[in-house]
Amino acid sequence: MANLNIRSKQERTYQAIVIGSGISGAWAAKEFCDLGVKTLMLERGRNVEHIKDYPTTNMLPYEFPHRNQIPQEIQEANPVISRCYAFREDAMHFFVKDTDHPYVQEKPFDWIRGYQVGGKSLLWARQVQRWSDFDFDGPARDGFAVDWPIRYKDIEKWYSHVEKFAGVSGFKDGIAQLPDGEFLPGYELNVLEKYFAEQLKKHYGNDRHMISARCAHIHGNAEYFAQQGRAMCQNRNLCQRGCPFGGYFSSNASTIPWALKTGNLTLRPDAVVHSIIYDDEKGKATGVRIIDRLTKETEEFYSDVIFVNAAALNTNAILLNSTSNRFPNGLGNDNGLLGKFVAFHNYRARVSGQYEGHAEFTTSGGRPTSGYFPRFRNVYKQETDFLRGYAAGFSASRGSGPDTSGIGMDLKNSLLNPDKYGPWRVGSHMMGETIPKETNFVALDPNQKDEWGMPQLRISVDYDDNDEKMVKDYIEQMTEMFTKAGFTNIQSSDSKQAPGLDIHEMGGVRMGKDPKTSLLNANHQLHAVPNVYVTDGASMTSTSTQNPSLTYMAFAARAAHHAVAESKK
Amino acid sequence: MNRRHALRHIALISGGLALIPSCDFSKDDILAAYQNLKVTTSQKVLLAAISDTIIPAGEIKGALDLEVPDFILVMVNDCFTKENQEKFTAGLTAFPAYAEKTAGKKFDALSTKEKEELILNGTKLEGDDTPEGKERGNIAYFLNSTKRFTIQGYMASEYIQTEIIPYSLIPGEYNGAVLISDLQKPRING
C-alpha cells in the first residue's frame, strides 16, 4: 500500500505513542501528559466524546422501540456479542458486532470488544479490588506459569495513585487478601446482606468475608472531582450508556479530557494499528504504522516510546503482526511464547436462593455496587484438590411484584398497585482464577484477513480439569453457606459459557524475570525491545480472581513514569 | 429510525380503524408494517380487542388507548424467532373459530366477563402432537405472548411512566433497610 501521507516526518513524531484509548491506554496517556510529554494516542474506533456522544444516556424506558431488547435479526447475525449481558438496545452502539470484525474460534471463545475512544471503559462493571501478595505469589508458590517479577510493594503506591484520581468507593475492611485502598465513603450493604455477612462470621469465624464491593464511583469529595468535570454518582445504574455526570470512571469522562486539557495530547481516532516499526540498525522500535479506518490509507507515526494498550488479545495481535528481520515471529518474540499462556476468569456458576426472614424490610433508591466475597480457598496454603480459588459476587434484593395471574380490571389494579412483597432473593456468581497454559493461545490466521487487510486472530482457549473442580467446589461451598444462613429454595447452575464472556481475557505477553520464559520485564518493557511497553491485560502472568482493570490502570501509570525516568537518563 | 417512524404512522392509521365500526373490512389487507408477519387489518382489530380485554380502559387509560396492539406486533415482528412468529400468527388465525366453538358466539359478541374467561382459559390450554393439539398449543402461545406484551407495552408506556407511576432516571440514595410499614402506598385506582 502506498503511503500517501505527505506530512513531514517531524510533524508525525511524538515523545510517546500510546496504542489504545481504553482504561489502561488512557491512563498511560494521562500520566505522560501530566509529565509534559507530547503524546499521540491512537484508537482504532470512532471518537466518543464525553456526554456529547452518549445518545441514549437520558432516554426513558418507553423511548426504546423494543424496551431494550435486541431484535432477533441482530441476535441471529451476531451470536457472540448477543450473549453479553450488557449488549442491549441502550448500549449496542458501543459494542463490536460479530459481523463487523470476524475472528477464528479454534475453540468456542466469546470475544467481547468495544472499538471506540474509551474502549470498554464505557462498558465495564466498575469493580475495583486490589491484588495482594497472595495473588502475586501464586505462580511461584503453586508451580504454574512463571514467577511474577513484581510484588504488592511495587504496585501499592500506584494503586493509591489511580484510586484517588478515578474515585473508588469502599470500606476499609482489613482483609489480608484484599488490601484496603484510598476510598471514598462506601456503599452500605442492605439489611439482608449484612445478615449474611454476620452469619458467615458466626459459622466460619474470620475465614470468610462478604463485604461491599469497592467500585469506581464518586461517592464523596465532590469538589476534587469537579476539577475533572465529574460529579457524584446518581445511582442511575445506566452506566453502560455513558454517564452524563461522569459518576463512574471511564477514559471518556476522566483521563482523556484531563490529558487533552494539558495541551500535550493528540488523539487520533480511526487509526487501525498495522504494526510497530522496528529499525534493525538502531536496534529499537521507531514508530507505529496505521491504516485509516475510513480511507484505508497507510500512515506512520514516530516515537522513541511506544505503549501497547490495545486490549489484551489485540495487543497480542499487533505484536504478532509486527515482524522484521530481527523479529520474524513478532516483536520481542525471541522465545516463541508471544500469544501463549492466555487465561481468563471462570464465571460459569451461580447459586441463588431466598430468605423468609427480615420480611418487614425492603430497600429503596439505587446503588452502583453489591456484595463481594474475597477468595477464601487456598489462601494461606493448598487445601483443596484444585489450584487457587474464586471470588464471588453476592447480592440480596426484594421487590414488590404485581400478581399477573388475572385479567381485566383485576389485572390492571394489581399492576398499578404492586404491593405484594415476595421473599428476599439472594444470588451469587463465581469469579474463578484460571491457570495460564501454553495450550491456551492466540495466533494470526495465515489466510483470513479483515476489512483492513489485517490477519484475523485465531483463538484457542479452553477450560481444564482445574476449572471443572473449581465450579463444583464453588457450588458446594456457596450452597453450604446459603444453607447455614437459613436460605431456602437454593438453586445452582453451571452455564458452561465459553471463555471470553467473562470479558477478563489476559496474558500472551506475560511479565517475568527471565527473557527465555517471558516477554516483559518488571517494568512492562519488552525484554528484547525496551522502548516498547505493554501494560494492559496482555501483560498478566496470572489472573487472580479480582476484576483486573484497576491493576491495569496502576500498571499503566507506573510504567509511564518509568518510561519518562528512562528518557531523562 | 425513519423506517420505524413510517411504520408507526401506518400502525396508527390501522389502529384507528378499530374505532370506526362502519369501516369496510371486506378488503382484508395484509399489514406491510410488520413485514415478517402476515397479519391482516381485521386480525389487528381482533388483537386490539383482546389487549383491550386484558387491560381495559377506565378512569385510567387502557391498553388500546396506548397503542399496545402496535407494540405487540412490533415485538413479535422484530424480536421473535421465525418459528415463534409462526406459532403466534397460527394462534391468532385460529382464535376466532376457537372463540365461536368455545363460547358459542363471535368474540365481538361476547360480554366482558365472557371475553375474560375465554382468554384466561385459552392461556391455560395444553398442546400435543395431534393437529388439534398443535392448534391448542398455538392458541395458548398466542394468548400468553399477547398478555405478556400487553402488560409490558402498557406499563412501559409514556403515559404510565409519566402520568401514573412516574419513572425517575435518578432513583435517589440507596436505603438498604426500609420498613415496609413506613412506605406510603398511594392507591392508584385502575
Cα separation of the termini of chain B: 34 Å
In the CATH hierarchy, the third-tier topology of the domain at 1-124 and 151-161 and 255-344 and 434-461 and 500-569 in chain A is known as: FAD/NAD(P)-binding domain
Tell me, rounded to a whole number, the average pLDDT of chain B. Answer: 87
Query: Oligomeric status of the shown chains?
Result: heterodimer
| Second rung of CATH, namely the architecture of the domain at 1-124 and 151-161 and 255-344 and 434-461 and 500-569 in chain A | 3-Layer(bba) Sandwich
Give the helix level of chain A as a range of percent. 10-25%
Rg estimate of chain A, integer Å: 24 Å
What's the CATH superfamily of the domain at 1-124 and 151-161 and 255-344 and 434-461 and 500-569 in chain A, by name? FAD/NAD(P)-binding domain
Task: Classify the secondary structure makeup of chain B into a structural class.
Answer: mainly alpha
Structural class by helix and strand composition of chain A: alpha/beta
Pfam families (chain B): Gluconate_2-dh3
Organism (chain B): Algoriphagus aquaeductus
Protein name (chain B): Gluconate 2-dehydrogenase subunit 3-like protein
InterPro entries (chain B): Gluconate_2DH_su3
